[in-house]
């Protein structure tokens, strides 16, 4: 592939900016990528040509960051080096910046394998220049409709953008994802037999009530959560495909999520059964990359949750868990995880409506907060913060949370302090922010943890798994 003068100018300018940011103590990849894109709009095509061992992408509405980081943990255990947009900059500019960081001044890549998290709305632009060797598709849930439009549109754009040459790693339990395998021979499905939360009936919001092939209503024999489960169409016969990788004997115990795939046993420190799908997606992709199960198991056990994905901090009042919330299905699963702690609860919910969060917050009325209302005796208080704190408090009031347990506090430091004020040792604390509040809260928690002289919570599974 012939490289133009624009490519070389974009490469060198991008690398100079990257070096400047690193010297100033910043880790940003977006600015170098943005400038490079302006100079050479097709720079991703040229940068990707050097990755002779393949380019793996992870996309979908939920779980991209966790899945990508789980796979990265496995690749490291296998001794592989790879380009990676670990910071989660998953738009075109961030992806370009990550590739620039792993490209030498002569235009060759420092590694031969790339692992890239790609925002679902960015997939068409990315695949317009790059043909991934492997694509993981996690799930599709309604998310920020004011930014991305109707979910059907997003699904269609992603489906049409992926090349027939790309091996698809697909969630068999999500009909919106499984449809990608219709007529495709390059597919590998993963799925779950059941979890302790699986049920025969569900009143949760479902995105796929109708068959994606013929439009007739789907029938379910088992629900995991949302539209994920065992489904079939009585019209055209579309149904949940048989997974190539099936999780069985799923159980959460001692802060570990344990499961089996065939005769092989796996575990990860992630909380919440919804994270099982992220682990399965990473496991399935790793197998396709030729990594043996023993190394996969070590990689899953060594994984430490990333920023705001059930991330734990140790403060003077006790451990607190920080996790991002951004759409109804994801929030419902977080609520399920919180309630499964079976402890008195202290909760802080931070809702912003900035562009990165989604301007329309009506999705809060689709979240099943009534489950918290039914267990309000366990709730000490819920602190509502962020630009839309009053809206969040109103929603919780209608869900059955007594007003005397609702606190509105717009100041984040004050809200964090209130969360811990008078806390007993047996109480669990959770902070649930939308995206633009996430990193500010994370910095506050890290600062408090440091001032208290307490170390970052070490994943004990890293030590336990090191010798297995």
From TrEMBL:
Enzyme nomenclature, EC number: 6.3.5.13
Q: Where is the Lipid II isoglutaminyl synthase (glutamine-hydrolyzing) subunit MurT C-terminal domain?
A: 324-437
One biological process GO term for this chain?
peptidoglycan biosynthetic process
Question: What are the Mur ligase central domain coordinates in residue numbering?
Answer: 58-197
Q: Which UniProt keywords apply?
A: ATP-binding, Cell shape, Cell wall biogenesis/degradation, Ligase, Membrane, Metal-binding, Nucleotide-binding, Peptidoglycan synthesis, Transmembrane, Transmembrane helix, Zinc
- Residue ranges of coiled coil: none
Q: Which GO terms describe its molecular function?
A: ATP binding; carbon-nitrogen ligase activity on lipid II; tetrahydrofolylpolyglutamate synthase activity; zinc ion binding
Q: Where are the transmembrane segments?
A: 7-25
The UniProt subunit note reads as follows:
Forms a heterodimer with GatD.
Q: What is this protein called?
A: Lipid II isoglutaminyl synthase (glutamine-hydrolyzing) subunit MurT
Taxonomic placement: Bacteria, Bacillati, Bacillota, Clostridia, Eubacteriales
